[in-house]
Amino acid sequence: MADVGEVLMSVLSTIRVPKPGDRVHKDECALSFSSPDNEGGLYVCMNSFLGFGSQYVDRHHARTGQRAYLHITRTRKTKEEDINTGSGHPPKKKPTRLAIGIEGGFDVEQEQYEEDIKVVILPDRQEVTSEDLTTMPDVVKERVRYFVCFLETDSVSHTLQVQQWDGEVRQESRHAADLKQLDNGVKIPPSGWRCDVCDLQENIWMNLTDGKVLCGRRYFDGTGGNNHALLHFQQTGYPLAVKLGTITPGGADVYSYDEDDMVLDSKLPEHLAHFGINMMTMEKTERTMTELEIAVNQRVGEWEVIQESGTTLRPLFGPGLTGMKNLGNSCYLNSVMQVLFTVPDFQSKYVSNMDKIIDDAPSDPTQDFKTQGDQIGIAPQMFKALVGRGHPEFSTNRQQDAQEFLLHFINMVERNCRSGANPSEAFRFLVEERIVCQESQKAKYTQRVDYMVQLPVPMDQATNTEDLQEAERRREEGDSAAPTVRAQIPFTACMAALSEPEILTDFWSSAVQAKTTATKTTRFASFPDHLVIQIKKFTFGLDWVPKKLDVSIDVPDTLDLSGLRATGQQPGEELLPEVAPPSLVTPDVEVKGILGYHGNEEDDSLYSPLLCQSVSPVLDDSTVSQLCEMGFPLEACKKAVYYTGNTGIDAAMNWIMGHMDDPDFSAPLVLPGCSSGPGTTPTESVSEEHLATIVSMGFSRDQATKALRATSNVLDRAVDWIFSHLDDLESMDVSEGGRSAAESEGRDPPPGPRVRDGPGKYELFAFVSHMGTSTMCGHYVCHIKKDQQWVIFNDQKVCASEKPPKDLGYLYFYRRVAE
């Protein structure tokens, strides 16, 4: 074998020294979840900086010819307490901080490791140790040592840090530096505060602009305040308030109503002194907002019940029982992916096909969806980075909504499955909506694609109403010992709220050419292989403050939805005429003056794009403003007012609540008959690559083109748009006589989205649960039924479940039962 020094010199030109900004994958294999902790360690290519496990490094060498790799191995240090305490464990402290992996927060295990780093030359795997380097020329020593130093300084330390999350990390308010404070002579006493409006003595906040002392928001369980501090902000626009009773020399709770978040105020001592408060002499007399959040979670008991904390759980190991590390608020991703990869379609696409996926992987596998999709294992860092790339929420380390992530991931699967099997088809189904005009009794049928059923929670159907009312009465009387009672809602009541006809009071009937009352009934036009049900626990209170419904629902193990099968047009039933309602157009717009337009019907199609860009809808500005003040996106507010015909805030708000989950909820308003949004003309060219992606889903080229033009040629939005505008697509390009353009030209009509169908009988096999008061905080776990045994996946902890809390789930997953 050649001298190791000579070999290293021969490959020196291939060794690149990392520069700031280079991504060096030293913690995870690009093709698997191998890490330096695993047997064989990790090999980092000293040219591409990609990491490979021992089973894949030879493959990379054969494909690229690269020979120099940095070999990293880690061994776990024995904890001192393991030696000293034996099997005894000190009692866990109750959390005092809304955090994970931080002093005072929820405990996570932190293990310490020792690292060994050496250069290895392939194919013979000759090792170059630090001792060998001392005898080599300076140019060799410097390049290798610089490479190693870069890796060491890039790491936080030789201690393998668990990812930390601190729910108390707050940002400096943009209003703090130049906050306006009124010289109104107001001085605040050091104690004895009461709301200036209602005399409440708890949850009291002082506005830092005018010194007004008012009560805070009402919480979802009825406690808290009467929203007077919030109302004061809405009337005055004064943004910052401090919670009296939390002021200490170390700080206080400061809330920004304008930024809608807890914030920091670096000038808080100065701002308090303006109203006579000496921060250095104040003592804490009330719980902070973080302490209240923890108390609410502990009082309600979600954390203990859902995580089965009161029982000794038996750890499980083996295929299909591998946990996933929390990368910092990634529990939503972990829970969803664990469930998805129990579905046969996903297993066959990304697991059974793994060898081919790896063989076909590009030169940088970290950016390949199929390669990362097959890696369900220990710490999905590359996978999380890839699926979140470019997304304003999923690219961050903030907590997210598991339901939104599931739909986001399904969209990514759709885009990346242009040919071959598409596992998302396991969830895809058609929904039929039947609207009947009550005056003419004529009907209209539409279909749309969906991937999950969203069940409302009818709180008025609770079976323990008396207990709820008694608990509420005691809280209103100030009884601090009043129990927290969870509403018991029958699952049948949730299904009834979905299946019963909905009354539409402002329906424009093409039969009577006027607004009238109609009924809308929703049914399944097809039943998917796997059915996802979301319990809509997250809603808004009467004051439009977001809240989570604390409910227990007796979700069944089996479902028979056969009675909800759509039947289509009934014998003898007349359909509503296909006539568009009168558009809401500005009265003073002279359409006939546009480019010589004279009202000739034959010219309509020629000039309609120009009309769409030149004619704007009449919108009630006051209603739009009110909706925007509630925090809804401007474009969504415009659409709400437009589609409810300027009939007022209540109708617009109902539209908002009914369309918040629409994929194009925040997209710009596109008028009926206009195929483009702002900045896109109907003749603008669209990406052939994007067209191919959408056509591969079963849509025609014309339909794909329409979707891309309606969304400014953005693929993500176009995919969302096309699935939520099937009605528009079905009626596009209709020629005289009611025949489609395809039929007129002798072609087959374009296929619709591919859906599977079968019996509507299902069995529960998994559910995802959320703990906390909103989707932006808390924790997710999932329970999966494997071989008739329920298993709890709590990030990397996998155990046999003793009492699966099926009544407290958020997302439920059913699979079809063979008849």
UniProtKB/TrEMBL annotation:
The EC designation for this entry is 3.4.19.12
Feature: compositional bias, Basic and acidic residues: 742-756
Q: Which residues form the active site?
A: C331 (nucleophile), H779 (proton acceptor)
The ranges of region (Disordered) come to 76-96, 460-483, 734-756
- Report the Gene3D superfamilies cross-referenced here: Cysteine proteinases, DNA helicase RuvA subunit, C-terminal domain, Zinc/RING finger domain, C3HC4 (zinc finger)
Q: Which reaction does it catalyse?
A: Thiol-dependent hydrolysis of ester, thioester, amide, peptide and isopeptide bonds formed by the C-terminal Gly of ubiquitin (a 76-residue protein attached to proteins as an intracellular targeting signal)
Task: Give the highest taxon in the source lineage.
Answer: Eukaryota
What InterPro entries does the record point to?
A: Papain-like_cys_pep_sf, Peptidase_C19_UCH, Ub_carboxyl-term_hydrolase, UBA, UBA-like_sf, Ubiquitinyl_hydrolase, UBP13_Znf-UBP_var, USP
Q: List membrane-spanning regions.
A: none
Residues that hold substrate according to the record: W205, R217, R218, Y219, F220, Y255, Y257, D260
An example Gene Ontology molecular-function term: zinc ion binding
Q: List each copy of the UBP-type domain by range.
A: 171-279
User: What UniProt keywords apply to this chain's record, in alphabetical order?
Assistant: Hydrolase, Metal-binding, Protease, Repeat, Thiol protease, Ubl conjugation pathway, Zinc, Zinc-finger
One biological process GO term for this chain?
Answer: protein deubiquitination
Q: Pfam families in the record, alphabetically? A: UBA, UCH, zf-UBP, zf-UBP_var
Family as reported in the entry's similarity comment: Belongs to the peptidase C19 family.
Per its record, how is this protein called by name? Ubiquitin carboxyl-terminal hydrolase
Gene behind the chain: usp5
